[in-house]
Amino acid sequence: MRTLNYHWNVRGMQFHSLHPFFERLYGEQAKTIDDIAEKVRALGGVAVATLEEFLSNSRLKEHRGDPPDPRMMILTLSADHETIIRQIREILRTVGEKYDDPSTTNFLANLLEKHEKTLWMLQAHLDRELG
Predict the structure, then answer these.
(1) pTM, rounded to two decimals
(2) How many angstroms separate the Cα of 122 from the Cα of each of 48, 59, 81, 84, 105?
(3) What span, in angstroms and rounded, lies between the C-alpha atoms of 126 and 60?
(4) Under 8 Å CB-to-CB from 49, ≥6 apart: which residues?
(5) Per-residue pLDDT of the chain (131 residues; tens, 9 = 90+)
């Protein structure tokens, strides 16, 4: 939701680059959420499907109030992806130690790669030497 919020509310000189960038990111995230729900169902679980459940299961905290400036948007999204990357790595260790499930290991490794790439792209926006 934060990426969608930033897409809707970005402003300033970087609007024309960040608006479509955020749109692409939230589109990819929506696909990833669908993939995760399908994986949960394939493993016999029930997919989280309400806003209340999303909030209670999230390790990312909501930020209320006016949207931040574009630089802070990028910094916040970068921190979010760093948190998600740490969580995926922890889950990968658990799956590797407790379960013999190469399919889930592969799924998580692919998810990790997507978040690492997104983090790299976000951080590239913050390179002050290049403008």
Answers:
(1) 0.90
(2) 27, 20, 9, 14, 26
(3) 21
(4) 37
(5) 999 999 999 999 999 999 999 999 999 999 999 999 999 999 999 999 998 998 898 888 888 889 999 999 999 999 999 999 999 999 999 999 999 899 999 999 999 999 999 999 999 988 765 55
Give which of 55, 36, 56 is closest to 46, Cα–Cα.
36
Q: How many CA atoms lie within 13 A of 126 on its CB side?
A: 15
Q: How many CA atoms lie within 13 A of 113 on its CB side?
A: 6
What are the DSSP calls for 30-67, one per residue?
A: HHHHHHHHHHHHHTT-----SHHHHHHH-SSPP--SS-
DSSP collapsed to 3 states, 1-37: CHHHHHHHHCCCCCHHHHHHHHHHHHHHHHHHHHHHH
Decide if 77 contacts 6 (C-beta within 8 A): yes
Q: How far apart are CA 73 and CA 53, in angstroms?
A: 25
Give, rounded to a whole angstrom, the gap between the first and last alpha carbons of the chain.
28
